[in-house]
Amino acid sequence: MAKIAYYPGCALNERSSHLDRSARDATVKLGFELDELDTWTCCGAVPPVSEERVMNLVAPSRILKDVRDSGRDILITICDFCYNTLKRTNFSIKSDEIIRKRVNAFLADDTPERDYLEKDDSPWEDYAGEVKVIHLMEYLRDELGYDKITESLKRSLKGLKIAPYYGCVMLRPQNEIQLDDPENPAIIEDFITALDAQPVKYPYRTECCGSYLSVSSPDASTRLCYRILTSARNNGADAIVVSCPLCFYNLDSRQKAISEAYPDFTPLPIFYFTQLLSVALGVEFGRQGFEKHYVDVTPVLDKIASSTGKGDSE
Amino acid sequence: MSEKTGLAPSKSPPIRLTRETVNAGFKKRVDALSGQHTDACYQCGNCSSGCPLAQEMDILPNRILRLAQLGQSDDIINSCSIWICASCFQCTVRCPKGIDIQAVMDALRQIAMDEGIDHFGPDQISPELAASVPQPGLVGVYRKLAT
Amino acid sequence: MFEPKIVCFLCKWCTSAGADLAGTSRLKYRPNGVNIRFMCSSRVDPEHILWAFHEGADGVLIGGCHPGDCHYEDGNYKTQARVSLLNRLLEDFGIDTSRLRLEWISAAEGAKFANVMNEFTEELRLKGPLKLAAREMAK
Amino acid sequence: MKRIGVFVCHCGINIAETVDVKRVAEEAKEMEGVAYAQDYIYMCSEPGQTLVREKIVEEKLDAVIIAACSPTLHESTFRAAAEEAGLNPWQCEIANIREQCSWVHTDREKATNKAIHIVATIVQKTKLNESLEPIPVSITKKALVIGGGIAGIQAALDIADSGYKVILVEKESSIGGHMAQLSETFPTLDCSQCILTPKMVAAGKHPNIELMTYSEIEGIHGYVGNFKVLIRRKAAFVDWSICNGCGLCMEKCPAKVSSVFDRELAKHGAIYVPFPQAVPNKPVIEQDSCIYFKSGQCRLCEKVCEIGAIDFEQNDQFVEEEVGAIITATGFETLPVADLAEYGAGDVPDVIDGLAFERLLSASGPTVGEVKRPSDGMVPKEIVFVQCAGSRDPERYKPYCSKICCMYTTKHALLYKHRVHDGQPYIFYIDIRTGGKGYEEFYQNAEEEEGIIYLRGKVAKIFRDGDKTVVWGTDTLTGRNIEIAADLVVLATAVIPKDSTAELAQKLRIQTGPNGFLAEAHPKLRPVESINSGFFIAGAAQGPKDIPETVAQASGAACKVISLFSRDHLEQDPAIAWVDEDLCGGCRICISVCPYDAREYDEEQGIALVNEALCEGCGSCVAACACGATQQRNLSDSQIKSMVTASLGGE
User: Rounded to an integer, what distance in angstroms lies between the CA atom of residue D516 and that of residue D499?
Assistant: First the structure.
């Protein structure tokens, strides 16, 4: 089975490890394996407020250089923040020679000589952006092909209305990310269609959920999430699918605060895209960590179960 | 021209523009930190129109840029807006003049922090939140809002 | 409500063009007048005016170019002279001279044309229909 | 009885919305003489015109009435269509049910009734219309261009290049106009003098152009193709035929006169040329300022002029010229700073207008291109530009946008910045309007790269405080008021018509609009013509315009003149006066009222005849005729009477 270099990132490594598991399960069903890097550090998630911009590219660059040095040219992430950070780092290194030189100087400085001499006899080689950072969904669309997913479906999601939620950093800034049209994207819609479910159109799919303001200004985030969820619900969604652990957290966990603030609010289940994929490919519900969700996903699962036979063990 | 009269301060004192205020270090520092050209902004207001957090701000994003153009640093660093920006890049992708407004916001936060204005500290986060929020949320808030 | 009937003799160069401008500017005014276009207001014979009253007009408007602006040098002055002469006779016919109105309205004065039509209509409304003995006798 | 066809146009919904066009057509069918009536959505379209032509033939119509828009728009269109179908064009009439009915009324019932009355009125006229033939008139193939700015120069050159003679009349002693005053031109920053001077010289040397500078129009008679123009050539007190332009007289003249050309930022003698590149480069003596004329002593200029060109005895000369077409290109002026009370009413020395700033920027200006303020010659470090100074202010000044200020103010600020690197320009504006090729890019570059601060707000007050000029403005973009202690303030004053425009328009009998600019025949489709045939307009005399637009319009007007001159003869409307010789008593009152000497007394027959070549068809003599012997073709008294009756709803 093909192995693709995989960077889980902090969130999926720890607090959202169930999402990591669903991704691994699903990809195996599709015939390839997510091969977690031997050693990796935090990518940094967001560019910090700092005068020293180059310094902050060092950590993600080291991750990328390690991938390249291990002889691989694709790195998959399934977290939008990791994707954004790694891809933009690559962009900076490729498009700006000064940044490239300075980053590599830091990397070289910071790496004990024996580390690379022991591993390999080849001399130091600057990292120049050789690795292609790719979102799992992008991999499914461009490398594997969405039709391959459709062919492999084991459960029917037919009739399920799923609202795609893009959030911010999966698409923006567009000139550096270039995954899809930031104003009118289709990648998640097409993913939903590939799962034989029905994508829901609604205007809030690219509006921010509040991101890290969930920590510093929770009320602001609550208001934003309320707008997104209500819009999706009003447009007929049974659930929302996301591709970022923070979006997942905000849209799911914030529903507690939303229900308190807005009495008329009806909760809406949230899925990580890997969960839906995994379920559709027949992996048992029990491996998805649905019990960690704040909003009960059972009504959606019931629909899936009733319209198809069983998965692996059900 | 600070007036120490013992009276309550004016609500909306006029800006007394001189070439010194306009060209003082502030705007240059914003541009240097952000890598952007603040003067390119022609005040169409698109950044504010589409900002998901505009309703939480005391000064809308376009006006933040405007104040920066006129060198009005005090108004900006005392504004809550720079701390409300969620770095969602909505304004950045839509700016007709190609200004990365998110980067300008980061620069303004930097300047505010240099002035000793910190928006967020570890003590402001509840233990349960700290234990549940995914790491990008925690890392984000510290990297964007605190020194 | 009484709807007076107005005959409007307008010169082509100024007042009729002004009336056209009222149209292109989409100004609104009362529909009580029908315009008859002459090359110059000086084509208006006092007899035309009397005929209009005879035929049932409650008012007659003559529109020409402002003094000095006549396309035919001084036609509007002639019109003015003729109208003031006719005014002396109108009373004898039992016609209030205010039922005959002479206005200088340029091609740029669409608004003035509209105002004049509204004012004149209103004025004639207050006056009521023209009762003309000669009209009855002729019939 | 004539068979008349009535065609009622919907004009899309323009007529049909307020007038029941079907009912108008039905009612028309019932009118006496109407043999056919029909409505159609766009009568002026090709299918509409085809309908008219086909029905003329099918229904054997003798005359047609098109109930549609104003005859000024499509009378000629439909007359041509009628002629194609075999009718005499004068058997086609227009009933105006759009501009004078559907567009001005809202009550559908009343508007429909009025439209029916309008059609009935025109039916009565048409019943008695005769078939006429146009009267051929010769053309004098020589043009008069009034105004020697860039518009007049361009128009004159275009006409002259096509082989026709042109007289170019200019009030000042040199052609060049305002463009000669400009420093550099937006958005390319071409030096104005450099691009204008060659054209001035070309106009001065062109064999087909006769320059008449220092001249004004006194009066005009005639009609298209045959105008007689009286031109006053003002006394220059210098014999230009021998003056060689050496300039010695100007050097020696002891009088000091504020230069109009330099916007009073410099002085010249009483004998002067307005600027060194003048065409013709001949001086004039300004009588009011000349010491000799005032005190009877001096004549220094005469003493130094070796060739004896000074002539204190000169008088104004009057010349009469015959021309076939006239282009008016008299340009613009700007609202005097003195009119703007809140901006210092002209009493603050360091508040100047845009044209004055052009002179300060100009390499040939009073400061040789160095920006120095008038009060003390200091190089201003804080400079404020105020846009819409008198424009877009319907309450107190001019309601319209002066169009050129956004661009020239940006140019001013930019040129200032190029000359005073450590200076700070500020521009107060209400809106920035940069509709023009390369204009927006020019403005964005200035804002982005040149450090010009644009402040969105109208300045409320400007006053002097010590050696500073304080500006009170606002910036609506920050929501904060702005105060600037400026070293110099430049007002973009409103563009207004030359004060002589009204008088000239009256002399020419051409129309002006509500703001005093010359009026075009149609705002979109006939922008370079006056409504009066033979008169054309070009440049800022018609409305605020920049140079490229002015040049385009001037070439457009020239093209119209050339197209007029390309014809062998013109056709005059034959709807003129005629005399029933049996009825004429020979009282000759008609002769006294005719402005054209078109009525002549025939001694032999004892009656007054009509000279058809001279009659303009005003109808004045017809109204004056006591016995009804004089009638107007296709507008006879009996036609008018039946029209009046029909307009009142009678039979």
Answer: 9
